[in-house]
Amino acid sequence: MGMSVTISVATEQDTEQIFKLQYLCFQSEAALYGNYRIDPLVQSLESVRQEVAADCVFVARLGEEVVGSVRGRVTEDGSASIGKLCVHPRLQGHGIGARLLRAAETALVEERGAKKFRLFTGHRSEGNLRLYRRVGYQTVGTSEGTDGVPMIILEKPAEAYVATA
């Protein structure tokens, strides 16, 4: 009998698994840009621990294993910044990323009063862009990440999360 992937709020006990998963998942992004100093690969375990404690963090679990994660926080202008969405490479393409995104969007609106969602992804990250556009995000600009990677900025109004949930 197979196990189902479940989505839940991350706990402090998940921090180390999130940290290791993030490192694994963002290797392909680093290779895509030829830059192994991208932010998710140089983030410290303590920094991840602080995000789990303060932000809206969800994990996808297969049994006891954390196989996906996403983080979000509401900024001063009411925008919810969503980031570091990752799914274990062996489980990508099965809708887990979209489920994590929906869980974060729901919590950010219902628990933290988000008015719109904003996320960033690398300009060459076609798989990420397809997912974000499929669930209603639209490109609103570009920027350069602190790691030097050109980024595409995508947004959608908070009301739209109901339509994609």
Question: How would you concisely characterize the structure shown here?
Answer:
The protein is built from seven helices and seven strands, in the order E-H-H-H-H-E-E-E-H-E-H-E-E-H. By secondary structure, the protein is an alpha+beta fold.
Topology of helices and strands:
Layout: E1 5-9, H1 15-25, H2 27-33, H3 39-42, H4 45-54, E2 56-62, E3 65-74, E4 79-87, H5 96-110, E5 116-122, H6 126-134, E6 138-144, E7 150-157, H7 160-164
Parallel strand pairs: 4-5
Antiparallel strand pairs: 1-2, 2-3, 3-4, 5-7, 6-7
Helix pairs in contact: 1-4
Q: What do you see in this structure?
A:
The protein is of the alpha+beta class and 165 residues long. Helices cover 37% and strands 32% of the residues. The protein contains seven helices and seven strands. It has a seven-stranded mixed sheet, sandwiched between helices. The longest helix is centred in the middle third of the chain and has 15 residues, at 96-110. It is globular, with a radius of gyration of 15 Å. The model has no long low-confidence stretch (mean pLDDT 92).
